[in-house]
Write a structure and sequence with these properties.
By secondary structure, the chain is mainly alpha-helical. It has 19 helices and five strands. Among the domains are: 138 residues, DNA Cyclobutane Dipyrimidine Photolyase, subunit A, domain 3 (Orthogonal Bundle), CATH 1.10.579.10; 112 residues, Rossmann fold (3-Layer(aba) Sandwich). Strand 1, helix 14 and strand 2 form a beta-alpha-beta unit.
Amino acid sequence: MTTIAPAPWPGGRRAAEQRLAAIDPRAYGTTRNHLDGAITRLSPYIRHGVLTLAEVREAVFAWLREHGYGEPGRQAEGRSIAGKLINELGWRDYWQRLWRLLGDGIWSDLEPLKTGHPAASYATDLPTDVAAASTGLVCIDAFARELMATGWLHNHARMWLASYLVHWRRVRWQAGAAWFLQHLLDGDPASNNLSWQWVASSFSSKPYLFNRTNLERYSSGRYCRTCPRAGRDCPFEASYEQLQGRLFPLSGDAATDNPGPASPDSLVKTGWAHPALTLPAPLLPEPRRPLLWIHGEALGPTNPVLRAHPGAPALFVFDTELLAGRTSTTGGRPLAPGRLRFLRQCLAELPLHVREGEAAAAVVACAAEHGADGVVTSAAVDPRFAATAAAIAAHLPLQVLPVEPFVDLELPAAQLRRFSRYWRWAEPLVWAGFSRSARD
């Protein structure tokens, strides 16, 4: 049995900065798909705002300048070297934009499945042998154990595990997505759910599959060497064509259909895009004695609220509904102990009070205790934030400060239908920022 070590990082800014300083865009670009590759492991810090996407982007640019790729004649080479890492940051920004657009709609199929199977034919519950890491498949069981023991999985392992659960076991992707959110330190509903939908084919042109050759190549064969089912009845021992025919015999051409362009109006009518969430507008004048409300998307010292009001009383609330697993943020599952430990380590480095309760009521009560004449917080994407903010604003003036964006770009809903459409607009703007910074 493979021994799984605890996640090799604590929460908090100091640990995040150490990882940020160690990034190597060149190695990342060439090895990231391998389980032993030079991945950054920054995602838990980004998910909770300990680091911002803008900070990571600038760290990549700083690495390029330090290695001589800021010179005009070498910028194209630098862009080639760091392009994959910047692209992955773009994926994170893209998922967040979709979450802001769709709200809790990220829990529903965005498109029909391309598998040939009706959605009703998929089971709604996580299989007990998968949850217990006892399927008898060494790779799948190792992934399940690592997820639950460490709160971490390499992205390739996440895709393999998701594909197995949805396509081989015929389980609804929502069951797996909620399981992941319970345990993953970087459990972000947008990145998580929309990636599961990409695997399932409810947000992609075809279902994602893998075979034993792919698994062995990127895992260095570590699982197959000890698996009793290798060479006997391994479900992944086949070509992609064979797997396609075996798993999706009725899919026909549907598996490769690519939805055409859609207008924002049609997206709303079909349920793909939900009406935009609205936040309370900043109220002027600014409060003279503010209470700072710190939420789970902004647990770093670069939080604009902490910068704007140093020394002001600040509060973070462990919402009882979230802890009990009664919210869409965790798919109806309580947070695993590892996730809570990581959050508490992040909070321990910040100058704030921590309470448990109903978030809006706790903020209003704390404001009264400190004689605050208003509440200041930072923007967030989770739709539960808008509801909590509105409840606070019913009692006190509320100011919502913007967070520095990864790329300053507004796009209509139709341009978010696929990542390629978003990236066509975003990528030139991101790299234009590098060119400007290299000149300065």
